[in-house]
Specification:
It is a single chain. The chain is α/β, with parallel strands linked by helices and about 200 residues long. The protein has one domain: Rossmann fold. It is about 30% helix and about 20% strand. Helix 1 runs parallel beside helix 5 and helix 3 runs parallel beside helix 4. The longest helix is centred in the first third of the chain and has 17 residues. The mean pLDDT is about 95.
């Protein structure tokens, strides 16, 4: 894992605020596991790349993000808003790299690939929110760009899709698909042990 970078995806207030429709249950627990990963990468001297999803207030950079079904919705993740900022409890390491994105994939329309190439990275480790949107899409995109992908399942989270399809079901389904052809699936403690 000497050539591995950690992608800390969208650890933003929108997923932690109780009044948010995207609030993730047990957010503090998943955030704690994300921070454990960040600390492990920091201790090993490996790159940590923080990514936030943001949009202009006028929505000109949103594309189909908020009207994918044909019906326009209000633009979210507006730059400068409280919901778009990092959660206060996120561990930010000195020397960590920061970037923003406007789509689900961290690769789409960003400088991420150039950064990874400049660092000699061959494997991306993925954690953050949401499991089934930005994390999964980034894992698939990373695979298509010929990176090895490590998906750290218990360091991701997502709001329930329905009463019958909850966060645990989402994580299980995403990991089953990714593990069948896109990524290696880990839990945090197992991954940290493998780094040592």
């Amino acid at each position: 894992m000497t050539d591995t970078a950690l992608l800390v995806i969208d650890v933003q207030n929108v997923y932690a605020l109780p009044e948010s429709p995207l609030c993730v249950l047990e957010f503090e627990e998943s955030l704690g596991r994300i921070n454990r990963l960040v600390e492990g990468f920091e201790a090993a001297g490996k790159p940590v790349i923080y990514v936030r999803h943001v949009h202009r207030a006028d929505g000109r950079d949103a594309g189909r993000m908020f009207d994918f079904s044909g019906a326009a919705e209000p633009v979210g993740f507006v730059e400068g808003s409280v919901e778009a900022e990092y959660v206060p409890g996120l561990k930010i390491v000195p020397g960590g790299l920061h970037m923003t994105k406007h789509r689900y994939s961290c690769f789409e329309g960003t400088e991420l690939e150039a950064i990874l190439r400049s660092l000699g990275v061959k494997t991306v480790a993925i954690c953050g929110y949401m499991t089934n949107f930005c994390c999964e899409t980034t894992a698939r995109a990373g695979h298509d760009k010929d990176y090895f992908v490590d998906f750290i399942a218990d360091a991701t989270g997502a709001p329930d899709l329905s009463e019958d399809y909850e966060q645990a079901d989402i994580i299980k389904a995403v990991c089953a698909t990714l593990g069948a052809g896109f990524a290696r699936i880990f839990e945090v403690e197992e991954y940290l042990q493998a780094m040592r």
